[in-house]
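chain below, 325 aa
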Amino acid sequence: MTRFVSRDELLGADDVASLLEGVFNSDASHVVVESGTYTVRRTVKVVLKDSGRGLCLEGDGVTLTAAMPMGSVLHVEGDKPSARIVVSGFTFDAAGLACIGLYYFRLLNRTSVLSRLRAKRARKHGFHLVACQASMMSHCVADTNEQNGFFLQGCTGLRVASCEAVSNGQSGFRVSALKLQLTTGETVPFTQGPELINCLSDSNGAAGVRFDVVGPDFELPSGELSTGLVLEDAQLLRNVGDGLRLGPRILGAVYDGLWIEPGSGTRPDAMGIRDVCVNPHADPGFPRHLRRGVRLQRRSKPVLDPTWLAQFGTCTAGDPIMVMG
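prediction:
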């Protein structure tokens, strides 16, 4: 069943958030919101409790603007592993009041898609995705947020394609591990990273892409590793910090076809690729990461961590690292 929400209906509502929340959590499987700018005074929350339900939210030309302090402009949560949702076309304007533009929790279905969204002016992150596995995010933009553009926690197998993070206060893309306590009381660590494909990270206040083992309130037990970040065909340009920053105890990161370029505001101590080399294996020749076709603009300082360059200056498989003059 399709439900159309008109501009007149929204502009005439005393509480836009309650109206949208009621429609989004109804029996409708397809909700279309008419274009326009609408203010919300609290978070709009969507919880998919029916494992067989599919929901499509379309908001082409729709801007939801925070008018009061709140956690996030839109909160989407999957209560069942098979819950699936498509959200497209919306702009989430946190207006310096909401901590997060879009908060997306535990969407595990491959048919769950975030597409053509924009999140801006959040007090923390534009997009904050938690424990979202095997779902898809494409053609989204995060800009002018006070912390990270995209904060991806425990998103094993999430595919992020053709997304842009521009002029955020910290990293464009921040990836970290997660310790999640289930309703059964069991604690499950999510330590594998997502895939970032054909993404742009430009003019952010810290790293272009940052991948850490340590997340908020969580540190991996000794001997455990965080694995599986894939970074392909990305442009990491004019960021204040490192182009790509890999934390310690990261194993199996793959990056291919990167273009990393500093800007006038890049810190003198920043590096194109900074790999905090704590090799978990006794064999120093262990192929910890696979790097191919990486291009870096040369400048009057090292563009690579000297430890990294000495150990991994040339790939054992694929193309060597190229430093462009």
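The chain is about 5% helix and 40% strand. The two ends are 58 Å apart (CA to CA).
thats it, cya
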